[in-house]
Amino acid sequence: MTSYTELGLVNTKKLFEKAVSGGYAIPAYNFNNMEQIQAIIQACVETKSPVILQVSSGARKYANQHILKNMAKGVVEYAHELGYDIPIVLHLDHGDSFELCKDCIETGFSSVMIDGSHLPYDENVALTRKVVDFAHSQKDYVTVEGELGVLAGVEDDVSAEHSHYTQPEEVIDFVGKTKVDSLAISIGTSHGRAKFKPEQCTRDANGILIPPPLRFDILEEIEKKIPGFPIVLHGSSSVPIEYVHMIEKYGGKLTDSVGIPEEQLRKAAKSAVCKINIDSDGRLAMTAIVRKILVEKPEEFDPRKILGPARDELKKLYMHKNQNVLGSAGRA
Ligand code: 13P
Q1: 190 in ligand 1 pocket by Cβ < 6 Å?
Q2: Residue 189 C-alpha from the chain's centroid
Q3: Largest CB tally within 10 Å, which of 13, 93, 119, 193?
Q4: Is the CB of 147 under 6 A from ligand 1?
């Protein structure tokens, strides 16, 4: 049994209180490997941003739970060495069972998500409450994120064909009965790099897909029902078109890619939305640079010369998000 405080991590409680009152969102970046976590920490230290390191169950299978835990411990020391101690949360993304959440809590996670959003309402409440009771009874309080409403899209082990918006009339009951610390909602974001079908979008003069706007009316209704309560947005990659073009230029094929425009995320970050989840954009940035190097330098076979520049690009992307989209820069 390892408690997250032994690893130098924090839970989300204070971070979310400050983010909601300060009108910004904490970045929740997914990672599976060393270069990703290095880029995240470099970017967040340099911009003095708090950060949530997210591990999905797919990442756990890919990288191994002991390795991931020790990477999180390692980057606490790395941030210190870089010269600035930022608050770092280790969070389970889309936990799908009590057992998985318990396992993560017992191996050093400071925050978990239990995603019962696909279940009938009462079952979602019961499962979420069970995880909350366990997490909150730990010596060091572990924070829990629940979800109401279903996001469309595909990501690791999470996939849904159709979305269902969160129903504002359910949130008071859900938050009251489950005692969650934050609530993920569905207002039109979606997982993956192709967030909408082309027929749901319009196109600009260059043929680039323009997605339907997020349902800020639903967000406002929710905020009225549970004022100041921390809200989470999943599926919030912007899918930068430059990366899509670069990947396609160097042999990739990413038809009909479309993300959430940055100005909509900026607007959301100023509201009670205090955690914004980003995974696909990091994948796109790394893939774009790796493809470019492999094509332009066919003689290269040192992984450091391939993954190192990809890591640098990732850092640039995350710095941009912290500074210009989420508003988390300077808040650590
Ligand atoms: P994206 O696919 O938009 O990056 O969403 C990631 C996410 O929500 C992780 O839970």
Answers
A1: no
A2: 12
A3: 93
A4: no
Question: Of all atoms in ligand 1, which is nearest to the CA of residue 236?
Answer: 3
Q: Is the CB of 145 under 6 A from ligand 1?
A: no
| Res. 154 pLDDT band, cuts 50 70 90 | low
Tell me which residue of 275, 201, 269, 273 sits closest to 239, measured CA to CA: 201
Tokens of 252: 């990739």
27 vs 274: CA distance, rounded Å: 9
Question: Ligand 1: which atom is nearest the Cα of residue 30?
Answer: 9
For ligand 1, the distance from its centroid to the CA atom of residue 299, given in whole angstroms, is 35
Give which of 123, 221, 105 is closest to 178, Cα–Cα. 123
Structure tokens at 103: 């396992």
Q: Which two tokens stand for residue 64?
A: 């191994």
72-120 tens-digit pLDDT: 999 999 999 999 999 999 999 999 999 999 999 999 999 999 999 999 9
Q: Which residues are catalytic?
A: 93
